[in-house]
């Protein structure tokens, strides 16, 4: 077993355990912590795939900002452990097979001969990941780049409007 | 070298787990977190394909997905805070009527 | 024996070497942390016209050991109703992240002259091409230690302190990252060794550092000030330490932590101070480059020039010290320091010592810069009052963030014009 394969299985196991823990934990803060574990292990997988800039952005933005937002909201809303609810019979007995069917279908679709996808177009990975991505962001993808900055501005305004206190009239 | 299929299978498993969490859990915030899990699974597939084909486009797309997820999380959590304030509960089964 | 040797000359040797380096670095950093607390207490005391610790050991030098023992032997109280997993995770997370950030800091330019079973021994643990981004990722994750500690304590003051502190850390993270972009524009790389090498112009010495450069891009004075102020806020130090101030919030997010868990937060705070000081030194002040041009080779004996007088001073101070223990220990320490200085000076005549002197130039300058930044940190603590929370957030969002973005724009314009002409 090569070291890369060993590291892959380690990180993959960590990610799957984190995702399972997200489902099985009762308190939302524990689910949030499990999701952080998933994100950090995915960042490790990105490093293994050679996408170093994406790995760093994953930790800084996803793990360091988005999940902090989730943790803040859970703390502020004083979320408590989930109440027990009764599932319908269909959900209890059909749930697991259906979930497995969904996963199997997705996996089969993704693995099934990817060679039919054409390999032309796009930028080759010759430069270092960071320089290459920045070149593409500012030349080929400059329009989506500017649109996402606009999107972030709209999101900031939306969050401000939603979270402000009601005006006492 | 790890074969690309392994990454894709892992991505499918994570997506399936995210979908199950979305349906099973009752807390609004946990449901929102399962959406983030699904987005992460898709990101992994993108980066795996980017490495397999030798092009950088997949990684640029991942950056866009992360940015959109951030914007969506900000607005979504604002909505969740308002809903929790009005209904006084974070259980999604209580958010089933238009009337408070 | 032969299989061990073959194992060590291949990949196994690399792992063993890395583990040894990690153990050595952890030992050194934890000792420096302990003596940093002594240094802080002494300096703040002298600024306040009092003496500071001077009972435990000569000049209070064994005070950190006494504090460490105290932390180990204190009763470990866990308040009722806490979420046990998160309560135990928070200090562990804070400490791990703070210590992990030391892995990417380079301490010297050249590898050691001898090899470990064929593996080169560099003066860093790892040198990734995204070294600076690794440091920022670790800083970004550091918010969790504080936020989870505040929440898990199941009490009002820690919760408020934790929320305020994490909001402060997230806000100042932005200006901290933006103020570094100017340096990155000039260095064209995220790797810390590349950034230092880019500041190395043997002709100009001091003037080629990123703060003062006039031949590379734009002097990063504003960038440095933004970075330093944001970093002080990021590490929750005075004047930005309202969330853990004793008169305001009892002890903020670490109120409910006792003995060793509190010590973990403490060590994490001082270690992040050391990391930030090294970042300042590396990014803005030339890292291991000497402030003098390389042609002035007589400046290579400045380490001896500093070590010999300080060693002699410690020696003579020890000879007339009050306690017997001090009379024994201090002269020995003084002699050792003066001896090292004399050995380095003897490099003028003895060739192998000359090589040693040349080798330690890089680490010496880097360590002196780190120590001067640590002194600035302690100086700020002894001098400045603390900010109110709304003043703090105003400075972060309304002053430092626009100024650091303006710094990026001006630096980018300069770099563009320089490369165009």
Features:
heterotrimer; B: 100 residues; mainly alpha; Helix Hairpins; 3 helices; elongated; C: 421 residues; 2 domains; 16 helices; 67% helix; globular
Structural summary, described in words:
- The complex is a heterotrimer of chains A (169), B (100) and C (421).
- Chain A contains six helices and no strands.
- Helix content of chain A is 73%, strand content 0%.
- By secondary structure, chain A is mainly alpha-helical.
- Chain A folds into two domains: 1-81, Four Helix Bundle (Hemerythrin (Met), subunit A), CATH 1.20.120; 128-169.
- Chain B has 100 residues and is mainly alpha-helical.
- The longest helix of chain B is centred in the last third of the chain and has 31 residues, at 57-87.
- Chain B has one domain: Helix Hairpins (Orthogonal Bundle), CATH 1.10.287.3510.
- Chain B is elongated.
- Chain B contains three helices and no strands.
- Chain C is mainly alpha-helical.
- Chain C folds into two domains: 64-295 and 357-420, no CATH class; 300-349.
- Chain C is 67% helix and 0% strand.
- Chain C has 16 helices and no strands.
- Chain C has helices at 2-9, 11-47, 63-73, 84-100, 131-141, 143-152, 156-187, 192-198, 221-234, 246-249, 259-284, 302-319, 324-345, 351-359, 361-383, 389-420.
- The N and C termini of chain C lie far apart (63 Å).
- The chains are: A mainly alpha (169), B mainly alpha (100), C mainly alpha (421).
The rough form of chain C would be described as globular
**Count of distinct structural domains of chain C:** 2
Stated plainly, the CATH topology of chain B is called: Helix Hairpins
Write the element-wise H/E pattern of chain B from the N-terminal end onward.
HHH
> What is the CATH class name of chain B?
Mainly Alpha
Structural class of chain B: mainly alpha
DSSP, total strands of chain B: 0
Q: DSSP helix count of chain B?
A: 3
Average pLDDT of chain C, rounded to a whole number, is: 85
Write the layout of secondary structure elements.
The complex is a heterotrimer of chains A (169), B (100) and C (421).
Chain A: H1 3-24, H2 28-48, H3 52-76, H4 89-111, H5 129-138, H6 142-163
Helix pairs in contact in A: 1-2, 2-3
Chain B: H1 4-24, H2 28-53, H3 57-87
Chain C: H1 2-9, H2 11-47, H3 63-73, H4 84-100, H5 131-141, H6 143-152, H7 156-187, H8 192-198, H9 221-234, H10 246-249, H11 259-284, H12 302-319, H13 324-345, H14 351-359, H15 361-383, H16 389-420
Helix pairs in contact in C: 2-3, 2-11, 2-15, 3-11, 4-6, 4-11, 6-7, 7-9, 7-16, 9-11, 9-16, 11-15, 12-13
């Amino acid at each position: 077993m090569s070291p890369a394969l060993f590291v892959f299985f380690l990180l993959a196991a960590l990610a799957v355990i984190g995702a399972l823990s997200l489902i099985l934990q009762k308190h939302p803060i524990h689910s949030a912590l499990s999701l952080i574990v998933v994100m950090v292990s995915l960042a490790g997988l990105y490093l293994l795939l050679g996408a170093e800039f994406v790995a760093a952005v994953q930790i800084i933005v996803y793990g360091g900002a988005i999940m902090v937002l989730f943790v803040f909201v859970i703390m502020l809303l004083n979320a408590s452990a989930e109440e027990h609810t009764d599932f319908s019979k269909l959900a209890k007995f059909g749930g697991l097979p259906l979930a497995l069917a969904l996963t199997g279908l997705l996996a089969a679709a993704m693995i099934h001969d990817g060679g039919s996808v054409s390999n032309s177009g796009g930028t080759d990975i010759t430069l270092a990941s960071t320089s290459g991505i920045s070149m593409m962001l500012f030349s080929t993808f400059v329009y989506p780049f500017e649109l996402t900055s606009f999107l972030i501005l709209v999101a900031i305004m939306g969050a401000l409007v939603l979270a402000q206190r009601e005006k006492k009239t | 070298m790890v074969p690309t299929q392994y990454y894709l299978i892992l991505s499918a498993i994570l997506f399936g787990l995210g979908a199950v969490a979305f349906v099973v859990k009752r807390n609004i915030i946990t449901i929102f977190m399962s959406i983030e899990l699904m987005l992460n699974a898709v990101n992994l597939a993108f980066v795996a394909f980017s490495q397999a084909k030798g092009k950088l486009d997949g990684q640029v797309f991942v950056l866009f997905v992360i940015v959109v997820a951030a914007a969506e999380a900000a607005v979504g959590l604002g909505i969740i805070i308002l809903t929790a304030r009005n209904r006084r509960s974070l259980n999604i089964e209580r958010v089933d009527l238009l009337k408070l | 024996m032969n299989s061990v040797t073959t194992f060590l000359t291949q990949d196994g040797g690399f792992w063993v070497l890395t583990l040894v380096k990690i153990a050595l670095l952890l030992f050194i950093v934890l000792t420096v942390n302990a003596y940093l607390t002594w240094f802080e207490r002494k300096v703040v005391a002298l600024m306040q016209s009092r003496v500071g610790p001077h009972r435990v050991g000569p000049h209070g030098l064994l005070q950190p050991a006494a504090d460490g023992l105290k932390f180990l032997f204190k009763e470990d109280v866990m308040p009722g109703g806490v979420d046990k997993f998160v309560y135990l995770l928070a200090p562990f997370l804070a400490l791990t992240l703070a210590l992990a950030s030391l892995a990417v800091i380079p301490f010297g330019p050249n590898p050691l002259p001898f090899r470990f079973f064929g593996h080169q021994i560099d003066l860093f643990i790892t040198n990734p091409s995204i070294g600076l981004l690794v440091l920022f990722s670790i800083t970004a994750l550091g918010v969790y230690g504080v936020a989870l500690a505040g929440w898990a304590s199941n009490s009002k003051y820690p919760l408020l302190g934790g929320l305020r502190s994490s909001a402060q850390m997230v806000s100042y993270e932005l200006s901290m990252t933006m103020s570094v972009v100017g340096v990155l524009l000039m260095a064209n790389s995220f790797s810390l060794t590349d950034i230092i090498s880019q500041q190395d112009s043997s002709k100009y010495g001091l003037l080629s550092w990123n703060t003062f450069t006039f031949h590379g891009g734009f002097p990063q004075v504003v960038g440095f000030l933004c970075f330093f102020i944001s970093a002080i806020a990021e590490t929750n130090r005075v004047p930005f330490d309202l969330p853990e101030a004793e008169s305001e919030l009892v002890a903020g997010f670490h109120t409910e932590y006792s003995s060793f868990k509190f010590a973990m937060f403490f060590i994490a705070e001082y270690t992040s101070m050391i990391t930030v000081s090294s970042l300042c030194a590396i990014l803005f002040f030339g890292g291991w480059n000497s402030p003098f041009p390389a042609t002035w080779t007589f400046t290579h004996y400045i380490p001896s020039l500093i070590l010999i007088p300080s060693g002699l001073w410690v020696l003579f101070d020890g000879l007339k010290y009050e306690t017997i223990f001090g009379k024994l220990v201090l002269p020995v320490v003084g002699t050792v320091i003066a001896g090292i200085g004399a050995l380095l000076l003897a490099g003028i005549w003895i060739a192998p010592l000359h090589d040693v002197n040349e080798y330690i130039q890089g680490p010496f300058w880097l360590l002196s810069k780190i120590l001067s930044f640590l002194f600035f940190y302690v100086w700020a603590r002894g001098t400045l009052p603390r900010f109110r929370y709304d003043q703090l957030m105003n400075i972060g969002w309304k002053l430092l963030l626009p100024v650091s973005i303006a710094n990026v724009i001006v630096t980018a314009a300069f770099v563009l014009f320089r490369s165009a002409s």
